[in-house]
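Limitations
The structure tokens in this dataset are predictions for the assembled complex, not deposited experimental models. Users should treat interface geometry with appropriate caution, especially where small molecules or nucleic acid strands are included. An illustrative entry is reproduced here so readers can see what is and is not provided.
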Amino acid sequence: MLFLPAVIMAAEDKGGSSEHQAAALFLGIAVLLIAAKISSLVEKIGQPSVLGELVMGVILGNLGLLGIHYFDALKANEIIQFLAELGVVILLFQIGLESNIYEMKKVGLNSFFVAVIGVVLPFVLGTYIVGPWLLPGLSTKAYLFIGASLTATSVGITARVFKDLGKLQTPEARIVLGAAVFDDVMGLIILAIVSAIATMGAVSLGTISWITAKAVLFLVGSIVVGILIAPYLGRFFSKIHTGVGMKLTLAISFGLIFAYLAGVIGLAPIVGAFAAGLVLDPVHFRYFKNHHLVEDIKKDIDDLEEDKKKKINNVIESYSHRHIEDLIEPISVFLVPLFFIVTGMAVNIKVLFNGQVLLVALGVTIAAFLGKILAGLAAGKVKKALVGWGMVPRGEVGLIFATIGKQLGVINDAVFSVIIIMVIITTLITPPVITNILKKY
Amino acid sequence: MLFLPAVIMAAEDKGGSSEHQAAALFLGIAVLLIAAKISSLVEKIGQPSVLGELVMGVILGNLGLLGIHYFDALKANEIIQFLAELGVVILLFQIGLESNIYEMKKVGLNSFFVAVIGVVLPFVLGTYIVGPWLLPGLSTKAYLFIGASLTATSVGITARVFKDLGKLQTPEARIVLGAAVFDDVMGLIILAIVSAIATMGAVSLGTISWITAKAVLFLVGSIVVGILIAPYLGRFFSKIHTGVGMKLTLAISFGLIFAYLAGVIGLAPIVGAFAAGLVLDPVHFRYFKNHHLVEDIKKDIDDLEEDKKKKINNVIESYSHRHIEDLIEPISVFLVPLFFIVTGMAVNIKVLFNGQVLLVALGVTIAAFLGKILAGLAAGKVKKALVGWGMVPRGEVGLIFATIGKQLGVINDAVFSVIIIMVIITTLITPPVITNILKKY
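Predicted assembly:
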């Protein structure tokens, strides 16, 4: 669940002065944002806007085929890539804020089972069945990398779909979010193991244990520490300033620091950002302005008729609520679409032009679908199909496996393309499928 | 009024993978944001928070002298620099939004006079009096560069002070903002002329006219076109989506595109962003959600007592108002402090250690103060001292002159340091002075 485009693209050298580059990027960002918003037209045919952004990204990123190269430089620009990555960190932080750690704990065991099966099954399918069957004659290591690339879910896509459709509070969404955290930890461990096997031919149990311990310690530790210090942070910083700016800065910094810590430990930064959002609670911000005002007004309108009161209450709630989630929303509006459109732009349509590669890729993709959908069966008494499909999107981690495998000389260009096509298909097909499942219930 | 740190610092090569770099930047941004917020403690001694951010930046940027080098890499990082520049663009766009083109027109002539005198006087003082007097024996070209570096105001500082103190709607603030736009145009023309003289020994009237025409045309053209198309933009895009996201995206994109156009023409991007904000008006967003709801509620509470009504109205207004300025506020909270803290970080305290250079610099700085404060006398029937001091801060453009002069071999290291010290002093002294003037009235 790391960052996609950075992995599969090389940064270009920048020409011209830095002011000129900055001005050009202002235009680039504006163009991408407007394109993203135009793509929200997909909502009119009942699809989540994230699908529109991904597809718009695929279109813009491949205009080079028609001789329009404006977007080639843009998608390779490291500042755009950073803003995109910042966007997905903000998104997962925001989703963490909207989630509640006690609600998450309720589904923890289900999440864990879904994650384990969703990692083991695709790995076995890819390494021992689909790989050797569709691509005979490769080395065992190559099959290992194919299997490994099928393991980790890219939760950003699914989370956006649930968010777009207002379903983040369902048990299914919680199970998927929790399972994605577990599955990122497992992905990290598998990456370390297969890399070690590829380079050294074997891996020690000590190494595996150490990586596992580090990842588990980080998750448990950050959540425990977060729960312990969060209540004091708000009180401490409210002594410096009680404005909205302080509150927002505090929340964002908390999210960014957790994202950093996750990155240091080798986990995806978005896992850290999600954990940070999870442990922050509106009550930690009670020392900041406006809460009293809102309570006051509620008393004032006590004599009004019920329906009027309800309407005014809604507005006031939204005004007071503003103090965390709503303050982050504009930053999210600004940065999150950049992530999805840049993710789409990284898709190279040309890889779809080789018939044989495409056929093999379809086989591998079916293994990718099957493994996760079957894992959904472990989700307990919920809509299992929703959980299973929610785990389907593969992204950055799959591409990291492919990139490392290629760098180590373990997999060739054809296998690399197969993995990329698998990522593309799982990413693009999931949003409409989840939308349709949600509409049926 | 271009971007400061990018001009005086070279970008370092980046090591490590891009995910690691991104994770490290998450931490860096969080640290800078928290430092900026802690610096808002200066408000407790009656100073605007922008001063705190600048001083905090100076401290952090010079911790290298104490052996702490964490911030050296941070201030040289081009992504941090871009975020800072994006921050000042957002700030001027926001200030443009809070300003009104018809109110600005009223003070247009006063702004123009202030700008002309505030450019001519410091130029003459620097080139013909202070320069030859304090630094005898240099070439005429060197004096030209010293004079030129004193001309252009860095309006970001003053604008933030007025904003911090809630004085953006005063005629003085309007005159300063308008004069800063004119003076940036004149600065651009002077830069072209002195550069031509330095390289070719002379400059044609045709070149001067062409640069002037381009700059004037851009400003007039962008404002006219903006006024003509803004009303239709809102209507057009509301057909795609009427959500808050669309509204915010539209506004930001508008600002970024104007910033880009200004940059293309050779003006500072912030001049474009300010113009964009100026032509956008709340009425252009009436096609988006929530306006009707607010009107409804106002009717509902008609029977309540006056004071209760007023309180509720305030909250509701703020809720409805949210739809432009308030939506941009969180983005501003996130990015604007980065600009001021990075500006402070670019200050190299070491240049203050050479006694002789420092003395000359103080002389040049006095010329810089005098020129602008006297220009304030042309401001008409307002608080002239406020306007004059408001024009005092020099920044990016002064540093650009110094950098180009050094690159052309026209000025030496000592003169370069003199200009940097002048920029530092005018930048750091203005916020407390303006604050005190405002408190006196």
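Some entries come with short summary sentences. For this one: Chain A has a mean pLDDT of 83.
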